[in-house]
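User: Here's a chain of 760 residues. Predict its fold as tokens.
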Amino acid sequence: MKRRLVIKSLVLSSGALITLPYCSNENFKYSNLNLIDSELETISYVSDFILKDNQYNFPTPDKRVDFILNTINYCYKNEEIKKFLDGFSKFKTEVKYYGNKKFNDLSIIDKKSIISNGFNSNDNLKFFIENIKSLSLRHFTTSENYMKNYLNYEFIPNRYLGTVKIWFFMNKNTFDAIVIGAGMTGGWSAKEFCENGLKTLLLERGRDVKHIVDYPTTNKMPWEFKFRGRLTNKEKLDNPVASSCYAFYEGSKHFFVKDAEHPYIQKKPFDWIRGYQVGGKSIMWARQVQRWSDYDFEGPLRDNYSVDWPIRYNDIKNWYSYVEKFVGVSGAKDGLDTLPDGEFLKPWESNVVENYFKKIVSKNYKDRHVIYGRCAHITENKPIFAKQGRVLCGSRRICERGCPLGGYFNANSTLIPWAQKTGNLTLRPHSVVHSIIYDDKLEKATGVRVIDAKTKEVHEYYAKVIFLNAATLNSNLILLNSISNRFPNGLGNDNGLLGKYIAFHNYRATVSAVHEGHPDFTTEGGKPTSSYIPRFKNVYKQETNFLRGYAAGFGASRIRETKTDGFGDELLNNLLSTKENGLWRVGSHMMGETIPKKENQIYLDKQNKDPWGIPQLVVNVDYDDNDDKMTKDYINELSEMFERAGFKNIKSRDNFKRKPGNDIHEMGGVRMGKNKKTSLLNKWNQLHSCKNVFVTDGACMPSTSTQNPSLTFMAITARAANYAISQMKKMNIWITFYLKIARHFVSICKFVIILWLCTN
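Assistant: Prediction complete.
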């Protein structure tokens, strides 16, 4: 019995199978096409002739012609629609030449002649025919029968793990700790506080997303999507920023911020990719987790840029381990000083071409290594994961939809339910944080001002300690908007550096090729990660005309050569009989470290407000000459490595259209440091001038390294939260606070007595 049938029977027996709706067979109007019934019929006949419509063998819930015309109507640009309609007009003219009959009444020979002429034409007739064919193919190859029986397509059904209770309101608005942002770092802050007995308020500006329950597309098959995964043209036009993200498509779009709903000002082009919901971007992240080394933490000091980190690898080493054990990290012990080993579960296996490339690189280069990427996916069962309600990763490769298995790590499946179990967590979604409240007399932050996202009502909540985990740019925004007599330019901004020295990762360049070897091997299924080449330039000394360096991804996959030649019976037979595999495709992408610069900054435009009356953020961030030189070096070096491996048809690309921010690794603006004059946070992530406010997300980073930053964000957060807890227990933070409250109270009493004496 096939594995999927076993799983299905198990789920059915448990009563946990979710019935998924098919696409509706509603009558669509195709408003942009203005076609009459006879024209719709013609297009349907053309599609059926190009690709036989055999509903008996390949039933689909929606009519093919509906799919074709809706895709053109909603997903195509206006100029493409015009080309299609013009081609259709020419097609109808062609049909008239054959006796003024309907297309379906023509002989097989005449139909073949018309279709063949269309394919061979050089005008819009070709566009019409080719699009009918391509959309017919898309409809067919994403049908349930074809994908299950010919591609052995599998999904793993979900399982129900329960929900997290939310308390929207309490009798009082006072807590031990307030955490702003319910994403990855906010989830860690909440977990640590709640585990240690602190009553914690977790604020999230977006909606609640419960694990499993609120993953609406996680078990949908391709044929159950209206556009088979595509975005409509309107969605792309309305969301140029969000749609630039690789993970934004029909099955995941509900987890991304839509451009018009949350405006910001791009002084220079910048893709601000956001996920406003409980879990934040931890639902859609790429899940790659590499430790930083001392070469990264010492970088600014050695190479004289940014400011020196106030911590080193040894300060955070144990916290990396602490986080990895809870998260679940797949990886191998590689023994590299540039990429320290961690607490790993068994790694995913490289395929034969990836291993071949690894051997070639090892043979030809002493300073370069090809390892398998470390990722936040469970590959072994451990008691901690059972307690979390998570099971092994099923390698579904649709993680951005949310995983019903909990196979990858996100805040929704782990951190927030874990905090909730303590009984100490109050989760408040739909809470847009306006600012942090600072008391000039007490010289402390006392709470947070919140605007209800739905009602626009203003609420204030109070706590002893505040952790700001709203993600890099929003954390900067909140501090900039937290104005008082003491801090007229933003909370903690004595040196005027708040919002400056923003950095990111440069993903502009790629190198691709084909491999003619290993024809007897192929791959089965997919994996959540691929090979990884750690930084090898400027590691031990400065040796290039640019500062710092880059890491690179590498992957290999066998090209499936599905035959789409011909039409009618020939095309159908080609599709169903395709068994051959083509050459191996290999590819690499860069991840370059950018240098934080003062001119790369963000600030508030007080003339333009968002829907909640908060000043919009202005983003002024761009590439520089260092990035250009680094990009060229990556292309040269990876191309050479591909050549030595014997790869063919090597192509490189520097994609200038990929804007800063599209990496989704923005960092800085509230950087850590040793000196109050050049930084805003100390080594424990406290604001220098407001000790009970901590910032532990990407905003705190003085530099970016070349590694994915999320693991470091989490380790820094766990470290800072436990420090805050220890200080609160020692009363080192709040003893002065209570003394100042007492002095404040005495002053008020004196004022009341004087007022009473004057009036009597």
